[in-house]
Amino acid sequence: MEKHNFNAGPSILPRIAIENTAKAILDLNGIGMSLLEISHRSKDFQAVIDEAVALFKEVLNIPEGYQVLFLGGGASLQFCMIPFNMLNKKAAYLETGVWAKKAIKEAKLFGEVAVIGSSSDKNFNYIPSGWQIPADADYFHITTNNTIYGTEIREDFDSPVLLVADMSSDILSRPVDVSKYAMIYGGAQKNAGTAGVTFVIVRDDVLGKVDRAIPSMLDYRIHIKEGSMFNTPPCVSIFTLKETLKWVKEMGGVAKMEELAKERAKLLYDAIDTSKMFEGTAVKDARSLMNICFVMKEQYKDKEDAFMELAKTRGMVGIKGHRSVGGFRASTYNALPLSSVQALINCMHEFEAANS
């Protein structure tokens, strides 16, 4: 049976990236050794990381004066690494979900944190508006896409202070004006590759401004100096990221990814909005193109488990909503084919016809 992978992360990857990684694990570029066993200091792996950096810069049109790093620890480590390197006295944060809350918690260990907007009052189903960025903040932090709640910021803000963005789950899904950001970071395991590697895009001139001593492993400047090889990097994950970036480029770049994302999302949101049985959970003007969250309407709540069972028999994978929201979540990342979205819609129609 064909599987339709809607997992929120780790998630669907381009098939070519999987196949090329598998080949490299057996034999990297015909050198007679596995990617798993070569030295990260070898010229063979240096070529891998160099190409990954170059592709990231090309695909996202990253300007001069920015560095691309590949680190371990996930985006969660960045929650403390960012304030360690950038927070002197005060930082501003936008609270739009669980991951933003976690980032805020870590930042409070290093200084004052001003939460200038929050959507927690409605279980994060909208993006706050009307907030003001304090001019005395060292930086302003946003989480652009909220996987659990299905909301997304698709605007590159003009910020009077340094702008930092967690783009774990929507990186590479649209063109980004990188010049407006001091830093962009995220776990790769949504649109960029596999779990195990974290990408960091950081502007050179924002570092070295804090008074505190920074442990070597948490100092961006050391990782820049060592070319992401201060310690042994996650080699296989970096290789898969490189292959995914190659696929994005060959498909037509981030502009094409955005076109496809809009097509997938429109198809599914239209089906949800015209349904007698299902309804979306995020406010319409804040809806994510990457994570589409929906539930059964109140009179059909008792049928959610039955729909999940039917969906499993039709090859749907990973559509159960997060426990804090319930219902269903379809993660429609770059590599998801439109046919999988249509298969989910067909499943919804089938269930409606039999139960409404």
Task: Provide a brief overview of the structure.
By secondary structure, this protein is of the alpha/beta class. It contains 9 helices and 14 strands.
What does this structure look like?
With 356 residues, this protein is α/β, with parallel strands linked by helices. It has 2 domains: 15-251, Type I PLP-dependent aspartate aminotransferase-like (Major domain) (Aspartate Aminotransferase, domain 2, 3-Layer(aba) Sandwich); 253-355, Alpha-Beta Complex (Aspartate Aminotransferase, domain 1). It contains 9 helices and 14 strands. The strands form 4 sheets. A 7-stranded mixed beta sheet has the order 2-10-9-8-5-3-4, with helices on both faces. Strands 11-12-14 form a 3-stranded antiparallel beta sheet, covered by helices on one side. It is globular.
Major sheet details: 7 strands, mixed
Strand order of the largest sheet: 2-10-9-8-5-3-4
Sheet-strand content, in percent, reads: 15-25%
Main CATH class of the largest domain: Alpha Beta
Q: What are the low-pLDDT stretches, counting only 5+ consecutive residues below 50?
A: none
Shape: globular
**The CATH superfamily title of the largest domain:** Type I PLP-dependent aspartate aminotransferase-like (Major domain)
The Rg value, from CA coordinates, equals 21 Å
Q: What distance separates the N and C termini?
A: 27 Å
Q: Remind me, CATH topology of the largest domain?
A: Aspartate Aminotransferase, domain 2
CATH architecture of the largest domain: 3-Layer(aba) Sandwich
Number of helices: 9
Number of domains: 2
